[in-house]
Prior knowledge:
Elements: H1 4-16, E1 20-23, H2 28-40, E2 43-44, E3 47-48, E4 51-52, E5 61-64, E6 78-80, H3 85-88, H4 97-108, E7 116-124, E8 133-139, H5 142-151, E9 153-154, H6 157-162, E10 169-174, E11 184-188, E12 193-197, H7 202-205, H8 208-224, E13 227-229, E14 231-237, E15 243-249, H9 256-260, E16 270-275, E17 279-283, E18 289-292, E19 297-301, H10 311-318, E20 325-328, E21 331-333, E22 338-340, E23 352-353, E24 359-360, E25 374-378, E26 395-403, E27 413-415, H11 419-427, E28 430-432, E29 444-446, H12 459-472, E30 478-482, H13 502-512, E31 518-521, E32 524-527, H14 541-547, H15 552-567, H16 575-588
Parallel strand pairs: 1-7, 5-20, 6-11, 8-10, 10-12, 15-26, 26-30
Antiparallel strand pairs: 2-3, 4-5, 7-8, 7-9, 11-12, 13-17, 14-15, 14-16, 17-18, 18-26, 19-25, 20-25, 21-22, 21-23, 23-24, 27-30, 28-29, 31-32
Helix pairs in contact: 2-5, 11-12, 11-16, 15-16
The protein binds guanosine-5'-triphosphate (GTP), sulfopyruvate and manganese (II) ion.
Amino acid sequence: MATPLEKWVDEQARLTKPKKIWWCDGSEEEAHRLIEIGIKEERIAGRPIFYELNHRTFPNSYLHRSHPTDVARTEHLTYICHPDKETAGPNNNWMAPKEAKRILTKLSDGCMRSRTMYVLPYMMGHPESPYAKACVQLTDSSYVAISMRIMTRMGKDLLEKIKDSDDFVKGLHSVGDLDPKRRFIIHFPEENFVWSIGSGYGGNALLGKKCFSLRIASWLGLREGWLAEHMVIIGIEDPKGNITYVTAALPSACGKTNLAMLESSLTGYKVWTLGDDIAWLNVGPDGRLWAINPEIGFFGVARGTSPKTNPNMMKALKKEKFYPTLFTNTALNLDTNEPWWEGMDGPVPNSIVDWQGTPWDSSQGTQAAHPNSRFTVSIYHAPTLSSEFDNPKGVPISAILFGGKRMHVKPLVVEGFDWQNSIFLGSRMGSETTAAATHEVGVVRRDPMAMLPFCGYNMADYFRHWLNIGKRLTNPPKIFSVNWFRTDAQGNYLWPGFRENIRVLKWVVDRVNNRVDAARAPIGLIPYLKDLDLEGLNISRENLERLFEIDVKEWQKEAEDIEIFFRSFGERMPKEIWQELNEMKEKLR
Ligand code: GTP
Ligand code: SPV
Ligand code: MN
């Protein structure tokens, strides 16, 4: 008798018609075999999947070049198919599930012909964690199979676990013909099912990541009483050796990976890494919020990563290792066979091909590495990995940061007055769009809790859910907004950022431990400058004051924009959030 899993795989194979089915066991030998296939056999649009890089300087590393139209998440092709549109909300694209299946069935008919279907059994979360979830993804891309092995706990043990059960999250993925006109990333939350066709790019194709661990998981969290969030998890160690655990939500390409691996500029302080992209938050029996990272890898932005901005990531990328590391759409230094990108530091090498393999020189005025070029690397290679990383229970969270990329308006750091006010603070976040998704870059859009593209249901219900979670927390974390990106009139960043962000984290830890007071402003609690540790930092008094300036006119405009956004949710928007907005407007008057 076939198990539900075998039956499901068989059905998908009858539709997609692969030449062969390969059940992956997650072993090291298998990873090497898949890389070999990607170098020598498999082709996408006539090109190899992988090119071997210089293993002396970048051990076990491979370059992948994607189709030029397939370089970022495509939010306009991403749908959440609840039975009714209202449940998906104005924050999501919606199609009736039946209609979506009709379209996808047609597109998928024979889509794996002459290709291999890889069956990937994997776990999001530590297998012993009560919060972990079992999943299976089918894909016809060896790049996706290898990436999933780096990013998730993949292995055949899971098949033992699933056995006769139907309780696993399903993902069906095919690169199709990579034509954006035939590209869809479609979620069926009621069925724990994601169906993606036409893209091989990270967030579109590694279905354990944004598709399951945020969009589907956020919906599971609503029903089961927990939260799936676009968050970093870090431990901040102080000079006495005490560790405070903090999560931080920042939109895509706004600094999570950098924050997660921050190398402190303050002596005695150290940041330990637990995650750089996704956190699942549960209310513990102690009334605290506990966080696990369901992933075990980084899919990080390459451009701008350097020994100066993120020395710990550079070490992870260059580490001697058995897990392969992938570079996607970076440039290549032909003299050394090393990956290269803008912002890597040092002189520009002489002989470069760009992310598409075309000869490049800096006078051309084009980009050598794609702005959204990325690396895929195991978290176990991070020199800053927390000793709690594999703790199935996770870590207790004392503070949550909500951030965004704002050249204007937003102070460096602001604390919410209380839980309700803090949920308003999270819901009013906005950020400039980045190259992580295909849209115009640099436009401010509302991005509550950095979850706009990832919340698998109506965001009004999501705000209500956050409010409800607060009622169950007897010892809630404090909540802050942060903005590393405020600029002066010339467009220069006012705050040095990166390793200096530890100074903001230190203030956060001091607030958590009630060591310092804060000033009451209309928009929240602001640090007294005397409480910020600025020892050894070269920053003018003027810049510092501008970092915390609250321009009433700008904020009134901001409030209008927030109001327009909230109105889009109609009657569903919690009245508590409206009340907070109205109070803020009153105070700004
Ligand atoms: P996703 O992987 O897309 O979710 O993004 P992420 O939030 O992990 O982004 P990442 O840390 O890779 O940030 C990428 C961009 O933010 C790069 O352009 C960095 O240079 C920039 N960045 C990160 N931290 C800082 C900072 O403190 N100050 C400034 N000015 N830029 C920063
Ligand atoms: C993001 O875009 O927020 C990422 C990269 O972390 S992706 O996996 O493509 O979603
Ligand atoms: Mn992300």
